[in-house]
TrEMBL record:
UniProt key word Flavoprotein: yes
InterPro entries on file: ApbE, ApbE-like_sf
Similarity comment: family membership: Belongs to the ApbE family.
Enzyme Commission (EC) number: 2.7.1.180
Enzyme class: transferase
Protein's name in the database: FAD:protein FMN transferase
Cofactor note text: Magnesium. Can also use manganese.
Binding site for Mg(2+): 150, 266
Cofactors required: Mg(2+); Mn(2+)
Organism of derivation: Alkalimarinus sediminis
């Protein structure tokens, strides 16, 4: 094969640092490939950001808050079909209507919400409280909101990989705010080595994971939390109880698609004491770390 070099492009999107590493035969070629990839990330960010009034998710939520019906495009329908499948697989723990919990959980305040506040907000949570059928969303109960925060970044990783492959890239690594997709190994066949954060020292890797293709995602109780009376309250909130996860400290999963890896890590965290058994049943490579620091799984190398 022709001699190629590695080019590294850094940018910001979807609320965090992102990077694309590509092997190409020239810097100009790599830049063109990277621009197409970054444009796709920006497109998805604009389409599904809840911070933009003109986004698809904001359009949906305006209807949802009032109570009504709305037709969605094919791409959005695919994401909703996936959300529905994971909701069922997780027995309601992965729920794209649970984002409203942020209205009562303020992790900068250092104060816990009242149970009475949670009881009120929980009435507006539940994928089964809306109707999703043949590209049409119906909201019989006014006040529900959708949030694709647990899907879109991982989906973007998969889309970028597909775009790069279609452009002839055979070796590269995509990272969008910690969600990762490998296009292929280094040209010499060696895998990319991905550092996994130590839950209690997130600026340090606790292990290195080899990845030559597919997606990798992690979830942990270290990303956003507050300590009250020496107890950690994580931003990972159970949509059924309204309270944070309490069992595992972090989970990392490898899957063919990053979106699958991402939702698997979230569900495993939310399942608490049953998380490890559920992960094992999936048959996907994983590494989990308990709150006591114990490591489980089979993908880490020191």
């Amino acid at each position: 094969m022709p001699q190629c070099s590695r080019y590294h492009f850094r940018f910001k999107a979807m609320g965090g640092p992102c990077s694309i590493q590509l092997y190409a035969d020239s810097e100009n070629a790599a830049s063109l490939h990277a621009k197409s990839a970054m444009d796709e990330v920006y497109r998805l960010e604009a389409k599904y950001s809840r911070y933009r009034e003109d986004s698809v998710i904001s359009q949906i939520n305006r209807v949802a808050i009032a109570g009504g019906d709305i037709d969605v495009d094919q791409e959005t329908a695919g994401l909703l079909n996936y959300a529905d499948a994971v909701w069922q697989e997780s027995e309601g723990l992965f729920d794209v209507t649970s984002g409203v919990l942020r209205q009562v959980w303020d992790f900068k305040s250092g104060q816990l919400p009242l149970q009475s506040q949670l009881d009120v907000i929980l009435q507006r949570i539940g994928w089964d409280k809306l109707i999703w059928k043949e590209g049409r969303l119906s909201f019989p109960l006014a006040g529900i909101e959708l949030d694709f925060g647990g899907i879109v970044k991982e989906y973007a990783c998969d889309r970028v990989r597909s775009i790069c492959v279609a452009r002839g890239i055979q070796h590269g690594l995509i990272e969008l705010g910690g969600d990762i997709s490998a296009i292929g190994p280094h040209p010499d066949g060696k895998p990319w080595m991905v550092g996994i954060r130590a839950p209690r020292k997130p600026d340090q890797p606790i292990a290195m994971v080899p990845l030559d293709r597919g997606g990798l995602a992690s979830s942990g109780d270290y990303e956003r939390f507050m300590l009250i009376n020496d107890k950690r309250y994580s931003h990972l909130l159970n949509p059924i109880t309204g309270w944070p996860v309490e069992s595992l400290a972090s989970v990392t999963v490898i899957a063919e698609q990053c979106v699958v890896a991402g939702s698997a890590t979230t569900v495993a965290m939310l399942k608490g004491d049953q998380g490890l058994a559920w992960l094992t049943s999936l048959g996907l490579p994983y590494m989990a770390i308990g709150r006591d620091g114990q490591q489980y799984g089979d993908i880490a190398t020191n």
